[in-house]
Amino acid sequence: MTDRMENHMEDDEDDVTPSISASQSDAEDCVQCREQRHAQGHTQGDDVSTVGEGPLGDTYHRGPVIMRGPMIPKDNTTGNLLASDQSTDWLHMDPWRVLRIQSEFVDGFGALAELGPAVSVFGSARIRRTDPYYKAARRMGRLIAQQGIAVITGGGPGIMEAANRGAALAGGKSVGLGIELPHEQGLNQWVNLGISFRYFFVRKTMFVKYSSGVIICPGGFGTLDEMFELLTLVQTHKVTSMPVVLFGKAYWQGLFDWLEGTVAQRGMISGLDSSRVALTDDADEAVSIAVSAIDRRK
């Protein structure tokens, strides 16, 4: 007799006084339970465990999940698999989303595993090609690629296109990590290694994991989101040796002053580490700072 059965018998001895009538009643209940389970399709060979019957009846296993009594579903895995009129609603349930998220991580890690050293360039998709910031981003992409370092962007137009363009024309690795959005046009034509993501957090993980430095050009909510997540990781020491460069003093100075002034003075942050977060108008200086961590790792 197994320990499980012994424990179960001990529990029964505490709760029930043995009698002939009780045994007969239990037997009748068991017969009724088996008939009900048979009518519901719970036959041996489905997902139901038939190892002993506890006070709640059989135990149903679905992976690591255990169900008993009224919690046991009326359907069964084999029947669901073979049903011809299946609904596709399950594709939008959270357990299935977890698999999609996992597959995105696997695809991203697989595509970028051998990328080598890289610098990410963030910025607005709305910057026109005649804008000085576009020209500066293109120059920075070229300077980074000429050092044998990959350039990673969000793969869109504007600043992202400019940095990818500079890297591609310099013969370097020009990476675009796109995001599926209703009105986006997909990856720009200067990306020579592109991945499209459904989930923002998976995409941002790729930026952080594979970048050794970041240059942040003027941008909107998407750029600010990426910037503040990076600053959080830097300030909490979740990432090491990742310099962050804010490019464009006229654009970023007000925010920079607010962070170092109002926010830091009120004790909300400990202050920005100037050795890890820089502000500049010089494209060459921005690149030099962004790649400095790569030099230290060599």
TrEMBL record:
InterPro entries xrefs: LOG, LOG_fam, LOG_family_nucleotidases
Any one GO molecular-function label of the UniProt entry: cytokinin riboside 5'-monophosphate phosphoribohydrolase activity
Coiled-coil ranges from the UniProt annotation: none
Region entry Disordered, spans: 1-65
GO biological process: cytokinin biosynthetic process
EC supergroup of this enzyme: hydrolase
Organism domain of life: Bacteria
Annotated catalysed reactions: 9-ribosyl-trans-zeatin 5'-phosphate + H2O = trans-zeatin + D-ribose 5-phosphate; N(6)-(dimethylallyl)adenosine 5'-phosphate + H2O = N(6)-dimethylallyladenine + D-ribose 5-phosphate
A UniProt-annotated Pfam family: Lysine_decarbox
Keyword Hydrolase listed: yes
Gene3D superfamilies membership: 3.40.50.450
A single cellular component GO annotation: cytosol
Alphabetically ordered keywords of this record: Cytokinin biosynthesis, Hydrolase
EC number(s) on file: 3.2.2.n1
NCBIfam families noted in UniProt: Rossman fold protein, TIGR00730 family
Family: Belongs to the LOG family.
Name of the featured protein: Cytokinin riboside 5'-monophosphate phosphoribohydrolase
Source organism: Bifidobacterium jacchi
